[in-house]
Amino acid sequence: MQIARVALDVPLPQLFDYRAEGLNEAHLGCRVLVPFGRRQRVAILMALDQHSEIEPARLKSVMALLDEAPLLDSGLLQLLTFCSQYYQYPLGATLFTALPGRLRQTEALREAMPQQVCLTPAGQAALAALPAQARLQRQLFQALQQGGDWQVLVSMGASAPALLKHWLTQGWLEPVRGVAPELSPTDGPTLSPDQGHAVAALRELGAETALLFGITGSGKTEVYLQRLAEVLATGQQGLVLVPEINLTPQLLQRFRQRFPTARIACLHSEVSDAERAREWLACQAGERDLILGTRLAVFTPLPRLGLIVVDEEHDASYKQQEGLRYSARDVAVMRGRQAGVQVLLGSATPSLESWHNAQQARYRLLSLGQRAVAGAQLPEVVLLDTRRAPLRDGLSEALLRVLRQQLQRGEQSLLFLNRRGYAPVLFCDACGWQASCRRCSARLVWHRGERRLVCHHCGWGQAVPQHCPDCGNQDLKPVGSGTQRLEAALAEALPEARLLRVDRDSMRRKGSWQAAQQQIVAGEADILIGTQMLAKGHDFPNLTLVAVVGADGSLYSADYRASERLFAQLVQVAGRAGRADKPGRVLVQTAFPDHPLYVALTRHDYPAFAAQLLAERAQCLFPPLAYQAILRAEARTLEQALQWLQQARQLMLPEQAADTVEVFEPVPALMLRVNGRERAQLMLQSTTRAALQQRLRAVTPQLYGLPTPGVSWTLEVDPLDV
Ligand SMILES: Nc1ncnc2c1ncn2[C@@H]1O[C@H](COP(=O)(O)OP(=O)(O)OP(=O)(O)O)[C@@H](O)[C@H]1O
Ligand SMILES: [Zn+2]
């Protein structure tokens, strides 16, 4: 009896056995339909076997084979199997994460058909002697002599679809791998010496990983374009990953302009399900040359892959925060290694992980030290000491003065504050009451426009109370500033300025961000007020001043990654100033002007700052000098969560004292309550990745066996937020 071992999209770590006749090795990676519980489900065929642990009487049968050719080729299966093991996430759920939503269901079958087919030699032989009365078959055979469009062929007769599918399964037809059009990229600018050196080095490097460290505006994108042109010219596919917020129409435009004849797939969160499935299949059929996408695009099937680029490789959005908690950057590096293609990571502020790898010569380091546009300089960074300057609504008089000068000169300014809403705290100074969320251990943020208090963690909200619910005091005070408050204060102080606020609240409607960008480029706004949405990757030529306010809060955070992030953020936002011919300036309002982070910022010295952070991490044994995994549990009460983690810890403890994996005590999470559930976590840590992986592999399967009344748990490898 033949057994099919299949992967299902369920939160269980094993594969499932079914009886299956008529399947063979060529079907591995195809989808099949199987009964599961009371339902039918789509599964992926992973292995064929003659034996099963399940008694024959209890084995159910595969109901149908859904694909003619594997949906996941052996390379992707290998990559996803690795991800499942590395991230300790069930294989089935991992595979289904990689599939576009449509292809996880049976309905998508029509779309899974090839676009173009042609006869194989076997097909030529088998169909040459068709009897005269088989009219439709003869017509199809005739039409197929030149190869044919699937949609046209299936419409030739009522039974044409069935016939063609049958011929496909017989191996008489095969999908036509799209023939790449003549690729003639338009010319880019003459490369700067740094850029030229980087491109030459990458050409020599072969299938390794390189870190392109280039200051903002140094022309990293130009280096990617150059390398992609070379790769595409040899008929290979290029995969470019960017953070969600950077995948703008402008960026796509830049790629289209350079590669006018290339077939470009654009995969991001606003692409519809149907579109995503279509593009995915087109990539798989080799009918796309260039793939521009966000995190999830790292799993796109690419039979002719020749280069992977990860732009802004330090960006936190490459990390998936639910389900399969993968880092798309790390998966890209792994994919490159498995597929034997080069991976190019780029950033002005590399993650310490990548920087460390480059220092250790695991990655090849390439640097761009100058701005690309002739004459463009890095902006001067000036610290505004607020210790002696009173702030009104978060703004100092010195800052207002500079903003006024900017207005007179007709140049744009950007005010950066990474906190939306009006004020982060609503406070009663009679009794000390603060508005806080009922379901989270978080304060409610006052959104003045909507007259509401909103929790930024769970979304719960309420109307702003007229008086203090504890003591009745009517004089409730907003404490601290969000973007809305800055906007209101500026409207009062500089009534003649045209203000534009850019944050997740003001840009909620689809298309509004795009409209705002056009407005900025057209010079229809004088002062931009924004969160990190405004910080990244944009080129606004008339923007000459960036002012940073309210950044001090992240300097002394409990999260050891906070200062790495703040630095990256400030370099990014500072990099928006003076990108064209006018020089730019950056002002930072701070009460800690001697802090090493700000000092490094004024000197534009990422390497010095990185060296200092790495020294600190080495001292405390934090990543990248150690490897971590976090086991999180949540329940109605903290007690339950901690208890479950205690049991888990017993399983996880090392058997020998010499073991290098540390398993810490469970502790309450920094944000204890979210959405009415209480959370706790325990950390595993080791100085070697292999030891940590080995321990996780040994114990994770047992976690599924622990009793979990009311407790839900997740395991995260290489967590970014601890
Ligand atoms: N060799 C060159 N000669 C002239 N202009 C160039 C050259 N390379 C890039 N540029 C221009 O310089 C500007 C910045 O380049 P690019 O966007 O590639 O930089 P980047 O390093 O990716 O920037 P950032 O990381 O700050 O977003 C762009 O307007 C680009 O067209
Ligand atoms: Zn909440």
Automatic annotation (TrEMBL):
SMART domains registered for this protein in UniProt = DEXDc, HELICc
Sorted keywords for this record are: ATP-binding, DNA replication, DNA-binding, Helicase, Hydrolase, Isomerase, Metal-binding, Nucleotide-binding, Primosome, Zinc
Superkingdom of the source species? Bacteria
Q: Molecular function terms in GO for this entry?
A: 3'-5' DNA helicase activity; ATP binding; DNA binding; hydrolase activity; zinc ion binding
**Catalytic class of the enzyme:** isomerase
Gene Ontology cellular component terms for the protein in this record: primosome complex
Q: Which PROSITE patterns match?
A: HELICASE_ATP_BIND_1, HELICASE_CTER
Cofactor (UniProt): Zn(2+)
The Enzyme Commission number assigned here is: 5.6.2.4
Quote the InterPro entries the UniProt record gives. DEAD/DEAH_box_helicase_dom, Helicase_ATP-bd, Helicase_C-like, P-loop_NTPase, PriA, PriA_3primeBD, PriA_3primeBD_sf, PriA_C
Q: Where is the Helicase ATP-binding domain?
A: 201-368
Q: Where does Zn(2+) 1 bind?
A: C428, C431, C468, C471
Against Gene3D superfamilies, the record matches this protein to: P-loop containing nucleotide triphosphate hydrolases, PriA, 3(prime) DNA-binding domain
Give one GO biological process term: DNA recombination
Q: Which residue range or ranges hold the Helicase C-terminal domain?
A: 463-617
Catalytically driven reaction(s): ATP + H2O = ADP + phosphate + H(+); Couples ATP hydrolysis with the unwinding of duplex DNA by translocating in the 3'-5' direction
Assembly and partners are described as:
Component of the replication restart primosome.
Role of this protein: Initiates the restart of stalled replication forks, which reloads the replicative helicase on sites other than the origin of replication. Recognizes and binds to abandoned replication forks and remodels them to uncover a helicase loading site. Promotes assembly of the primosome at these replication forks.
The family annotation for this protein states: Belongs to the helicase family. PriA subfamily.
Q: Which HAMAP family match?
A: PriA
Report the protein name in the record: Replication restart protein PriA
**Species assigned in the record:** Leeia aquatica
List the taxonomic lineage.
Answer: Bacteria, Pseudomonadati, Pseudomonadota, Betaproteobacteria, Neisseriales
